[in-house]
Amino acid sequence: MNLEHVKALADILNTKGLSAIEVGEGENRIRIERDFSVSPPAQTSINQTPPAAPDTTQSAAETTDSPPADTGNLIEIKSPLVGVYYAAPSPDAETFVSIGSKVKKGDILCIIETMKLMNEIAAEQDGEVVDICIKNGDIAEYGQVLFKLV
Question: Would the pTM count as exceeding 0.70?
Answer without folding.
Answer: no
